[in-house]
C-alpha cells in the first residue's frame, strides 16, 4: 500500500495538485473516468481524430468536442441534473484513438 487515500487526491485544492480524471482505452475508444462534475474536461496534448464523438455512459446525449490548440475540450455544460450520476461518471470518446 502506498500510504495515501485516492479519494483525497481527486479533491480540487489551491495548495496541491489533484487528479482531474482517470483514462483507459478499449479498441479505438478512449474512456475518461471523471470523479466529479465540471463544465468541461480538458485533455491536454490530445487531438481527437476527425469523426470522433463523445457521450456519457448510460446517457444517449452527445457532447461537444472542440480542439483548442494542443488540447481537446469536451463540453459538459449542456448536461442537466439527472442526465448523469451525481458523482463519478464516464465519458466515452468513440473512435478517439
Give structural notes.
The protein has 97 residues and is mainly beta. The chain has a domain at 37-97. The chain is built from one helix and seven strands, in the order H-E-E-E-E-E-E-E. Strand 1 and strand 2 (29-34) form a beta hairpin. The longest helix is centred in the N-terminal third of the chain and has 4 residues, at 6-9.
- SSE sequence, one letter per element: HEEEEEEE
Number of helical stretches of at least 4 residues: 1
Helix content: under 10%
The overall strand count is 7
Task: Determine Rg (CA atoms, Å).
Answer: 14 Å
Gross morphology is globular
User: How far apart lie the N and C ends?
Assistant: 33 Å
What's the arrangement of strands in the largest beta sheet?
Answer: 1-2-7-4-5-6-3
Roughly what is the average pLDDT, rounded to an integer?
A: 87
Largest sheet: 7 strands, antiparallel
Low-pLDDT segments, ≥5 res: none
Strand fraction equals: 35-45%
Class from secondary-structure proportions: mainly beta
Amino acid at each position: 500500500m502506498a500510504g495515501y487515500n485516492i479519494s483525497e487526491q481527486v479533491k480540487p485544492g489551491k495548495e496541491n495538485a489533484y487528479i482531474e480524471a482517470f483514462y483507459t482505452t478499449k479498441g479505438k475508444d478512449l474512456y475518461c473516468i471523471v470523479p466529479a462534475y465540471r463544465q468541461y474536461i480538458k485533455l491536454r496534448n490530445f487531438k481527437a481524430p476527425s469523426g470522433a464523438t463523445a457521450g456519457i455512459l448510460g446517457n444517449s446525449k452527445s457532447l461537444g468536442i472542440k480542439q483548442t490548440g494542443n488540447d481537446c475540450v469536451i463540453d459538459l455544460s449542456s448536461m442537466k441534473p439527472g442526465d448523469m450520476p451525481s458523482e463519478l461518471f464516464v465519458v466515452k470518446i468513440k473512435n478517439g484513438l
